[in-house]
Amino acid sequence: MPNYFLYARKSTDVEDKQILSIESQLAELRELAKRENLNIVTEFIEKRSAKIPGRPIFNEMMKKIQAGEAQGIVCWKIDRLSRNPVDSGKIQWLLQQGIIQHIQTHSQSHYPNDNVLMMSVELGMANEYVRQLSENTARGLKHKAREGYFPGLAPLGYINNPQTKKISIHHKNAKTIKKLFEIYATGNSTIEKLTEVLEKNGIKTKKNCRVNISRITFILGNPIYYGHFRYAKEIYEGKHEPIITKELFDRVNTILRRRGRKPDQKSDPRPLCELMSCGSCGMGITGEKKKKKLANGTIRHYVYYHCTKKSKTQKCFELGIREEELDNQLSSLLTQYTMPTEWAEMLGEKLDLEEKQSVTSVQKEIQELKNELEDISQNLSRLTDVYVAQDIERADYLERRRSLMSNKKSLEEKIMQITKTPTMWIEPTREWIKDSQILDEISKTADLPSKKLSLQKIFGSNLILKGREASGNPFSHYAELRSARENLGKKDATLIVVRVGGIEPPSQPWEGRILPLDHTRI
């Protein structure tokens, strides 16, 4: 009497949505075997899809059949055994060779001498069903993405809404995500510290472990948090509620790119690290602790700052500099951008006046931004036409689309900010005046982190160290302030700031400078 293996399979995929549960299959097949007097020696239960080869339980069963432990298979339907041509061919071959002598399903039997056409058609239909289902699913998800709805599992800070089939804000986690971006944007935190922030707010992995560094890095680089999302390597405009602004996202990612590989927290003193780059090779400047034993046995500790020398294309010969000497140079730089008190007072009065007059002047600027936005939309449309016509490689298309989408989002955000607050540049300008006034005071302290923060506001990432000398190109408003001090001196307080460049909406030719009071607008 031949032996039989009972095989029951059901996956969590859509393809098996209508199939009986494992328990139901087992009950039906046991009853079938009893009714047909089939000797079941082993039951095999598998909870994986059959659309790709490599199912471990199925392969184990096939090996046992080839070893002669059983001569037949009992299953609910033939598509339980296979939905791919590789496994289908194996089953048909073993059946034709008589190694499998009988396959019994709930509705029919298959024997070696049967016409193989019917089984081929049945297995082929199972495979084609999976292919069509995969294509239809992919097409549906891509259409959902084009409509602006994220077609996947909601990232941290969002939840999948089962009613709307869209993602919604998870208010508690969203606040934590926003906090991560804001902390890292200061430039005074590390990825490791952000993992602690998540842990303190009760956010851990499914295994109740701390979220790892790579996951934090992925979160900080995910455009879904400012309103766009990636799907199938393309960037789409989302209709979900953003958690952060595009401007905050860009600031964070600028810091991520500048830092690159994370330095060793245990050996790196870090007070002035990630502030400058090497003026010769462009690599970062890092700090390193050194110690020296004097003749009398005393050990002195020093901190040297030097190029990381990580360039793969250029050999760097720049030497290091003692922290004390670098501190003196940076303090001297800060004093050059200090705003005299009398200037600050007069500028404050001028800002009050400008605030009253500027509401109508932004309309032209908004229209210019809208024109730029229209140009980007047209470029996106033309880019798609070129890609459809196969005149451009997919990789090039994706990169250009990503860049255009990023610029589009930045412009939309800027227009929205200007529309809501026509005088939004006023407060940042007042903050700039306030910061500029205390630079001289900060330069006289030993507070290196405060000096670093002030220098980043002045130079951004444009501060270099070359020939053991620190120098850099400041932002335009700080450059104008320094120029005014050099050319006019402290005795001349008749100055006015007209919209600090880089903070406010796009300016007129006369804007973004420190100007004499008798300057006439053109």
Structure description:
It contains 16 helices and 17 strands. It is α/β, with parallel strands linked by helices. The chain folds into four domains: 3-139, Resolvase, N-terminal catalytic domain (Rossmann fold, 3-Layer(aba) Sandwich), CATH 3.40.50.1390; 158-259, Putative Large Serine Recombinase, Chain B, Domain 2 (Hect, E3 ligase catalytic domain fold), CATH 3.90.1750; 277-339 and 430-516, no CATH class; 364-417. 26% of the residues are buried. The model is unreliable at 261-269 and 490-522 (pLDDT under 50).
Secondary structure class reads alpha/beta
> Helical element count?
16
Quickly count the domains. 4
Rounded to the nearest angstrom, the radius of gyration is 34 Å
Point out poorly predicted stretches: 261-269, 490-522
Task: Describe this structure in a few short sentences.
The chain has helices spanning about 20-35, 55-65, 85-95, 115-145, 170-185, 190-200, 215-220, 245-260, 325-335, 340-355, 360-390, 395-420, 425-435, 440-445, 450-460, 475-490, and strands at about 5-10, 40-45, 70-75, 100-105, 110, 160, 165-170, 230, 235, 275-280, 285-295, 300-305, 320, 465, 470, 495-500, 515. The protein has a 5-stranded mixed β-sheet, sandwiched between helices. Helices cover about 45% and strands about 15% of the residues.
Secondary-structure topology with pairs:
Layout: E1 3-9, H1 22-35, E2 39-46, H2 56-66, E3 72-74, H3 85-96, E4 102-104, E5 109-110, H4 116-146, E6 158-161, E7 166-169, H5 171-185, H6 191-200, H7 213-220, E8 228-231, E9 234-237, H8 246-259, E10 277-278, E11 285-293, E12 299-307, E13 321-322, H9 323-335, H10 341-357, H11 362-388, H12 394-420, H13 426-437, H14 439-443, H15 448-459, E14 463-466, E15 469-472, H16 476-488, E16 495-498, E17 513-516
